[in-house]
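Handout, section B. The chain below has 155 residues.
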Amino acid sequence: MLGWIDVLYYARYSNPEPPRRVDRGEEEWRQVLTAAQYHVMREKGTEKAFRNAYCRSYDPGVYACRGCGSKLFSSSTRYRSLSGWPSFSQPFTKAAVKYAFDDSHHMQRIEAMCNVCDCHLGHVFAHGPEPAGLRYCINSESIVLLPETADQNEE
């Protein structure tokens, strides 16, 4: 289980090795993503709170990166944060998410990105539910819910 100290360590020193890499040029990203997805995932934008696909949806399954299909979060770690965006307490695996310091907009935050394709997902904060206390605040534009299947516990 990851904790805040782990997130800070990864952001400062070195992220976990991804299981694979997906590298695309920006023109190719523009061809495979909608304008809204591109804005969030490649330009580090933020969708509107409470007006996004997964804000109020709690269906079972695995949330994958919309850019490369990598499994990012399990619905079993999803919780109601009332923030306006889907929130999770843990990533699918230790190596699913990449972390970086984000000092934009006059705030100090930790950016969460897909560790396979570097697409922006959202941010992670140290005020989530116990036992780890993490809150991954994720843009719906960055993820897609894969239906629950028997093999989703393995990466």
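Note. The chain has a mean pLDDT of 94. Compare this with the example in section A.
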